[in-house]
Design brief:
By secondary structure, the protein is of the alpha+beta class. Helices cover about 20% and strands about 30% of the residues. Strand 54 and strand 55 form a beta hairpin.
């Protein structure tokens, strides 16, 4: 094509392209009349000859005509309501350019796997983004080298938002009228609410309310914003008890995007389930929060205005954000109902289309017209095992997947790493791990006579050996084809694949991402220092600045003028499990599995210093001593270091190597004379400080394998009658063990006492309960969502309370530090479970309104730390390689408690129907019937009505309302009631009233009631597989277990129970004084019980219970 022809094609394309871009935010559909009128106005504009002001005036006139037309239609509707039933609404269809105009000739999906085997889709969403850029008008591609970079931008984003807002407002009225004609009356109101919800993508809640009151239109924040708006916004008042403050780390498997440079350098990256917009010079972050699962892929539009993020997991989402304001303008729910979420995502050149690939066994490609606010894709295609070339043809997708083998070029091709469209031809380029480039031609004829559509197909035409190193990144910039390889080299090729320039002296690791600035290169001056290219002419090599992200989780900025490389941040590349906060300063130490300990100033968000340990040493646990001078570090292979907290240098001459496994816990005594560690081999080791030669040195004391299962907590304390330290450990084997440090000596760690915490549920963590009462308690959380208080001296369980129930049990807990003496009167507990961080108001009493939780790490939380002043909480995400800083707002949680009600009101809400429900009425009846029964049913004496029942009646009332406690739980209830006032009055309590009984009931029962999953879990342990593959217990084995294991029964008790269950004895016969004698001896268990008993048979046929499968997803 000649230059004039090419320039003409370019101008035609730009005209259509800019016009298309102005419609990106249009969330409502146009009528056919409006569409034709809009097309005529577009033709009258004469391309770019009419300036924006005239265009806006013409659009405002059209909007005014639409409004008048709408008022006339409303008058006609009123007349039609009198009896004329006539369909006046017309189907509104959006203006959709033809396939040739939009250039959706295809999205070539990258291929992984050997060329001779099955071709599979590569999961790198950055590569898919490059491929989906092949959208054009009459010509497939634009010559990037000839078009000015500013002209490549897709119009003014501010104008785009403004136009979208005006059209949305006009269309809102039109759609309401159309919907009113179809439904009328109340139906029309529902239609207004639904369409108002669509417009709310572009309006804040305040703006919606103001428009509703004023009845007029108001400019939205999206349409009026500029690229500097985001970091000028006021944070406002914190309304949540826990608010995200800062994110340390990033997901190095996903790309980093350079989204702004003109006024300030701004980056976009992902950390866990949050996308982060990071302002480098200001050192500030804006968090795009909305995903519940970890973000799996993201992309940005050509002008970096629109950001699309997607996740993998239950309830997966696709969210489109405005990068100028951080507002989510559109959300696609349930985008992958058949799969596990989205694996790759890309946005079209004009930002009007999204392409997604699902993460399922049978992957599906979907094209979304997200600007129309639709909930279903425009077209889909289920990919066969051999993935290939995709394109849209009349709202359907067809694909071309040619088989590429070694015989194709008679050379080894290698696995594909990434593919892009050639910047100035109808070709596709695919890079391989052998350093080669496959060039594909796009053909527009039918694939075969039996083809479903006359769509394009691809054919390999050339294999170019670019380099020896494997190509890990392939992209385009300023007309160049750019590669990054596993050796850290960055090379630029011209459009004929001739080398133009390269950067090989930067000493980088494997390149993961190359993202070029959206701003073009500044005009050259006398001070410019661009390098020369590799051509014979030796011209200046001028290319825009770019961001480099490497496999070691490091992000660099390269200024091409002068070739200045700046390291922006270095984050852990492996799991982060260890965090610890300094007890007196705003310092946080973070340890990762790659052997790095970094120290941050979390108030200034500033990295201070770090230490990299030798290869093979992964940091698993960190703890500061009470003075903040030392930092104890446990490593994955069993080594223990004692470090100087301010320099990270060794405090001990040599590290301690007395364990061969992962050191999970490190703890210091209150006087820093002892340090204890625990490892995954259930072993506790103790180290002590001694004086040698006038110097204090740390020495190994002793170790003991004291537990049978993993240790979940290791605590130092202080004896009440002295200042001597005490050491306790708690394990999943349900053993609480205290050690006698004073009598321990070299290689001998003596045990003081051992206590069993529970029969069924295993403990998960333990902390010292603050001094809110006269007694000193140990707070223990267990796997049954309970919080238990044990007397620190006698180890007696004094209270059992309902703990936080947010999908999984509490795994770690810390008491929030206080800053003033006044704050000692009200204390708080910070906890984490599998994926959430939460707050609990102390004292714990079972009130569900006194707790809250937020999702912090969807893939699992590994660690928890608190700032010395109680203002911040920090959570480590483990495999997501991040640490999240949470700002704590206690007044918000206190307000939520007050809204939940006082006294017994929160507890009434925990029983079915509340206080006025059937369950509570039955409880009252049983409670007062228990008084009658305890006085004798047949007595003729005057009845003594009381508000209390004696303790001996408590188990019978519990069982009557459906809670069946074990003998151990009954003993815990008795102790809880008897000693409830002992510390204050010195007296024991032998009776209980109804309100206190209700509290005991809701705190001791299972939070989810009787569930089949619990019974099935017991049969998994006790049973053996039957012919159907189910775990079952033989009848004789079950009877023997009941007589010999656990709280075993006598023969008489067992026979009487089965007789009652079989109907031979009246219900409650043993507890009813007037009941007849037992007939249990008449039952024949061999006849009444089946030979094999499964969990379902035991629950429904023997016990006669109708119970649910298990708790819901939220654990409620």
């Amino acid at each position: 094509m000649s230059d004039p022809e090419e320039n003409g094609a370019k101008e035609t394309e730009e005209k259509e392209y800019n016009q298309n871009y102005k419609e990106v935010e249009n969330t409502c559909r146009k009528s056919p009349d409006d569409t034709s009128g809009w097309r005529e106005s577009e033709e009258d504009l004469g391309g770019n000859q009419l300036d924006r002001k005239e265009l806006r005036e013409e659009e405002e006139e059209e909007n005014a005509e639409e409004k008048e037309k709408g008022e006339e239609e409303e008058e006609e509707e009123d007349k039609a309501a009198a009896g004329v039933q006539e369909e006046t609404s017309e189907e509104r269809t959006p203006e959709v350019k033809s396939t040739s105009q939009y250039g959706l000739q295809g999205t070539f999906l990258e291929i992984l796997g050997d060329t001779g085997s099955k071709q599979s889709l590569r999961t790198d969403s950055s590569g898919l983004s490059e491929l989906f850029r092949g959208l054009s008008s009459n010509q497939d591609y634009v010559n990037v080298a000839q078009v000015h970079p500013e002209e490549q931008q897709m119009g003014s984003s501010a104008e785009l938002g403004e136009r979208a807002h005006r059209e949305a407002q006009n269309q809102l009225g039109q759609e309401e009228r159309d919907l009113g004609r179809k439904q009328g009356g109340a139906g029309g109101g529902r239609g207004k609410a639904r369409h108002r919800k669509r417009i709310s993508y572009f309006l804040g809640d305040e703006e919606m309310g103001s428009q509703a009151e004023a009845g007029g239109s108001r400019e939205s924040l999206v349409s009026s914003s500029t690229e500097d708006t985001l970091f000028q916004k006021d944070e406002g008042t914190q309304v949540y008890p826990l608010a995200l403050s800062w994110l340390f780390g990033w997901n190095s498997s996903l790309p980093v995007f350079y989204i702004r440079e003109r006024s300030q350098r701004v980056l976009l990256y992902v950390c866990g389930h949050t996308a982060v917009i990071y302002n480098v010079p200001r050192n500030t972050q804006h968090h795009l929060q909305g995903h519940r699962n970890v973000i799996s892929c993201l992309c940005v539009s050509e002008d970096r205005r629109w950001i699309a993020t997607a996740d993998k997991g239950p309830g997966c989402l696709i969210i489109i954000w405005d990068s100028f304001t951080g507002i989510p303008v559109h959300t696609i729910f349930d985008s992958c109902p058949q799969g596990n979420g989205i694996r790759a995502i890309a946005i079209s050149h004009d930002a009007k289309y999204l392409a997604t690939v699902s993460d399922a066994d049978a992957q599906e490609v979907c094209i979304w017209r997200w600007t129309l606010a639709v909930e279903t894709p425009a077209c889909t295609l289920e990919l066969p095992r051999e993935h290939g070339f995709q394109h849209e043809e009349k709202d359907t997708l067809v694909h071309s997947a040619p088989l590429l083998v070694e015989n194709t070029f008679n050379k080894l091709v290698g696995k594909f790493s990434q593919s892009i469209f050639h910047p100035n031809s109808t070709q596709i380029l695919s890079a391989t791990l052998e350093g080669k480039l496959v060039v594909w031609d796009i053909h527009r004829c039918a694939l075969a006579p039996s083809s479903l559509a006359d769509g394009p197909f691809i054919r390999p035409c050339k294999l170019v050996h670019l380099q020896r190193e494997a190509v890990s990144v392939l992209t385009t910039a300023d007309g160049y084809i750019v590669t990054g390889d596993i050796k850290g080299n960055i090379k630029f090729y011209d459009q004929t694949l001739s080398i133009a320039n390269w950067y090989s002296h930067l000493n980088l690791s494997c390149i993961r991402t190359l993202s070029f600035s959206p701003s073009p290169v500044s005009p050259r001056t006398e001070k410019s220092n661009f390098p020369l290219d590799c051509t014979l002419k030796g011209d200046l090599f001028v290319v825009r600045n770019f961001i480099i992200a490497t496999s070691d989780a490091t992000v660099y900025h390269l200024t091409t003028d002068g070739t200045r490389l700046e390291k922006l941040f270095v984050e852990p590349k492996d799991a982060v499990c260890a965090i610890s906060c300094h007890p007196y300063q705003p310092l946080m130490a973070v340890g990762s599995a790659c052997g790095v300990i970094k120290v941050w100033d979390y108030e200034q968000k500033k990295y201070l210093f770090s230490r990299v340990f030798e290869k093979g040493l992964g940091v698993q646990s960190l703890t500061h001593n009470p003075e903040g001078a030392l930092l104890g570090a446990g490593f994955t292979e069993g080594t223990v270091y004692i470090l100087d907290a301010m320099s990270l240098q060794n405090e001990a001459p040599e590290p301690f190597k007395y364990s061969r496994s992962n050191v999970t816990h490190v703890s210091f005594s209150h006087d820093s004379q002892y340090m204890a560690t625990a490892d995954v081999n259930f072993t506790v080791a103790v180290y002590m400080m001694v004086v040698r030669g006038g110097r204090r040195v740390w020495e190994y004391l002793a170790r003991l394998r004291s537990h049978r299962q993993s240790i979940c907590s290791l605590l130092f304390g202080v004896y009440l009658d002295s200042n001597e330290p005490r050491l306790l450990s708690l394990g999943r084997d349900r053993l609480l063990i205290e050690y006698n440090l004073s009598r321990s000596h070299k290689d001998h760690l003596e045990v003081l006492d051992i206590h069993h915490t529970d029969q069924g549920h295993h403990p998960t963590c333990m902390v010292w309960y603050p001094l809110l009462t006269k007694e000193l308690f140990l707070l223990v959380c267990d796997s049954g969502y309970k919080v238990k208080l044990f007397n620190s001296t006698t180890k007696m369980c004094r209270k059992t309370l309902l703990g936080p129930a947010y999908g999984s049990p509490v795994e770690q807990a810390r008491v929030l530090p206080v800053r003033t003496a006044l704050e000692l009167e009200k204390r708080y507990l910070v906890f984490i479970n599998r994926d959430k961080v939460g707050l609990q108001i102390l004292p714990v009493d079972g009130n569900p309104h006194k707790t809250c939780a937020m999702v912090c790490h969807p893939d699992g939380v590994a660690g928890l730390a608190l700032s010395y002043d109680g203002r911040y909480a920090f959570t480590a995400g483990g495999h997501d390689c991040s640490v999240v800083q949470w700002k704590i707002n206690l007044s918000a949680l206190d307000a939520a408690v007050s809204l939940g009600g006082e006294d017994l009101t929160p507890f009434y809400g925990l029983v079915p129907g509340g206080r006025e429900g059937k369950f509570y009425r039955e409880l009252e009846d049983y409670f007062f019937y228990s008084q009658i029964r305890s006085q004798g049913i047949d007595t003729m004496e005057t009845r003594k009505v009381s508000e209390h029942i004696c303790l001996s009646e408590v188990p019978f009332v519990m069982r009557a309302i459906g809670f069946y406690p074990s003998e151990e739980k009954i003993e815990d209830m008795f102790n809880e009631i008897k000693f409830s006032e002992y510390a204050d009055t010195g007296k024991l309590i032998d009776r209980i009233n109804l309100p206190d009984f209700l509290k005991v009931f809701v705190n001791h029962r299972s939070p989810f009631g009787n569930t089949l999953s619990g019974i099935r879990q017991s049969f998994e342990v006790l049973g053996t597989p039957n012919a159907q593959g189910e775990k079952a217990v033989r009848r004789e084995v079950l009877l023997q277990l009941l007589l010999s294991r656990g709280e075993h029964m006598t023969q008489e008790e067992m026979t009487d129970c089965f007789a009652t269950l079989s109907g031979l004895n009246p219900e409650g016969w043993k507890s009813e004084p007037a009941a007849s004698a037992s007939r249990g001896s008449e039952i024949c268990l061999e006849e009444e019980l089946p030979d094999e008993i499964t969990a379902e048979v035991f629950a429904s046929d023997i016990l006669g219970l109708t119970i649910s499968e298990g708790p819901g997803e939220d654990g409620q």
